[in-house]
Amino acid sequence: MAILTVTLNAALDITYRVPVLTPRASHRVSDVVERPGGKGINVARVLAALGYDTVVTGFAGGPAGTVLRQLLAPLAPYDALVPVARTSRRTVAVVDGSGGDTTQFNEPGPLVSPEEWARFTGVYEALLKDADAVALCGSLPPGIHVGAYAELVRRAHAHDVPVVLDTDGEPLRRGIAARPDLVKPNADELAGLTGAREPLRAVLGARRRGARAVAASFGADGLLAATADGVWRAAPSAPVRGNPTGAGDSAVAALLAGLVDGVPWPERLVRAVALSAATVLAPAAGEFDAAAYERLLTDVTVVRHTEPN
Amino acid sequence: MAILTVTLNAALDITYRVPVLTPRASHRVSDVVERPGGKGINVARVLAALGYDTVVTGFAGGPAGTVLRQLLAPLAPYDALVPVARTSRRTVAVVDGSGGDTTQFNEPGPLVSPEEWARFTGVYEALLKDADAVALCGSLPPGIHVGAYAELVRRAHAHDVPVVLDTDGEPLRRGIAARPDLVKPNADELAGLTGAREPLRAVLGARRRGARAVAASFGADGLLAATADGVWRAAPSAPVRGNPTGAGDSAVAALLAGLVDGVPWPERLVRAVALSAATVLAPAAGEFDAAAYERLLTDVTVVRHTEPN
């Protein structure tokens, strides 16, 4: 048995380091790093680092897909990606010496044919037979119907496999109606879904749309979760500073692990907040600082909300 | 017989289109175009479009090299690139809606081993046997000795093949001492080589360093050439506006064609200025507008310089 993550729009993530980014100038890149990317693959890597067996599926194709799979091969997640004729997208993140956010360029994904989608759903059904839980992560590449995540939620539930959904926009709106076990929107995604900016109202609104539980991430303010067992806020006792890339994926990984292990909600949220913060503290994007994680586990405040759920 | 171009640091050129480039923001790329790149490959494509048989050599390797060769295969230049273990560089040009210059990111080239350099020189020697002329273009990838172009100039002359050298910095300084038949620096490269900013002084200084002829490009001001036959200035009668990418490579192509055809210098310069301007006028970077080229051929002013050469 393993945890399955789905990345329909997997990417080859490329990072360029330049001294200073100047629009309309030419830059000599001093350092090029490539890694397999896309939210579901990131979640699987974090879960593998925590000791869970993981399987990744979704689509990979073309030269970028080949490199992505070559880079994935020596890593712990098992590669069950489905070939696609068109090329997987690349993302280019330009890091400059300013210490601020990266400048990011995201290619569009490959056009997926109906035959390729049918091949994927066949692989997905087979993988569900051995899955403890499944995470559906990230954007949909072109050619895939907007109700795809709703379909994948229903197929997972038909196999009694719980589902975490982490996406945005219309795919989230449609997917949430199929009653996933958990959605993990950030503040913007939550506002886009519910029209509400006030956190509690927005989280309760998202739950009413169908999600059995909602754990929304508010950056340094931590998580606000609405579940059948109650509503909780969880946050580090002091804010952490660093690179937030991958913090959301780490939260999904911890929530998924907590779901599989049947951990009570307050403890799940503590783990998710600690792992997120330990990811912000790690020097490399998307990795977490294991020592900081252990330390932060005892340094997260969880408060039960007393308003009626 | 054919014209040979050498691109030791061949590249996969990637162009991204974004509405507005904002440092430290995330950009959805609307359009991705890939083409085989590097100065020598660009020169060969222009020569092929003019009807010349062309052969390209240099190094290509890794996933970027594979894509580069796949994109080169259906084009006219004959692919005699030499495989290299490390991956060829990519260049990313970000075009935004501003209509200004692109924002350019250039990866470092692949580290070339001494064995790979030896394999290349063997291929180069074999190709020289059927070459009318050779162009040595662009930067040197890591691992290749800085006197590489001087070595390639001498090897070509041992086969009685004339050489055009288009590079920069120390490789130009070393290469020019081996007496190439022509160098084509731009204003910055010429100033870097000679320390002189005054065009005539700089061009004559470059010639004294060893080049049999110097044709320096000064953007919209056209070319200034110092040759054994005299000194000429050539410029379009009215400046042209457009995308200057590839204009220098088109000038090299025209000068190389004129050399092979034994065209007198004033006519060579007219062709080079007209082809450069027709490249600036073409909507796609590195292509030239054939009708504009024909028209511009009658619209370039050549003035013989009367000062002592």
Can you characterise this structure?
The structure is a homodimer of 309-residue chains. The first copy, chain A, contains 10 helices and 16 strands. Chain A has 309 residues and is α/β, with parallel strands linked by helices. The first copy, chain A, folds into 2 domains: 1-170, 3-Layer(aba) Sandwich (UDP-N-acetylmuramoyl-L-alanine:D-glutamate ligase); 181-309, Ribokinase (UDP-N-acetylmuramoyl-L-alanine:D-glutamate ligase), CATH 3.40.1190. In chain A, helix 2 (62-72) links the parallel strand 5 and strand 6 (78-79). In chain A, helix 1 (39-49) packs across helix 8, helix 4 (148-158) packs parallel to helix 5 and helix 6 (187-194) crosses helix 7 (199-208). The mean pLDDT of chain A is 95. At the A-B interface, strand 3, helix 2, strand 8 and strand 9 of A face strand 3, helix 2, strand 8 and strand 9 of B.
Class computed from helices, strands and strand pairing of chain A: alpha/beta
Q: Into how many domains do the coordinates of chain A divide?
A: 2
Reported by name, the CATH topology of the largest domain in chain A is UDP-N-acetylmuramoyl-L-alanine:D-glutamate ligase
* CATH homologous superfamily grouping of the largest domain in chain A: Ribokinase
* Largest two-chain interface: A-B, 29 and 29 residues
Overall 3D form of chain A: globular
User: Main beta sheet of chain A, described?
Assistant: 7 strands, parallel
Q: Give the N-to-C terminal Cα separation of chain A.
A: 34 Å
What is the helix fraction of residues of chain A, given as a range? 25-40%
Count all strands of chain A and give the number: 16
* Low-pLDDT stretches of chain A: none
Q: What's the assembly state of these chains?
A: homodimer
Order of helices and strands of chain A: EEEEHEHEEEEHEHEHEHHEEEHHHE
| Cα-atom radius of gyration of chain A | 19 Å
Write down the CATH class of the largest domain in chain A.
Alpha Beta
Mean pLDDT of chain A: 95
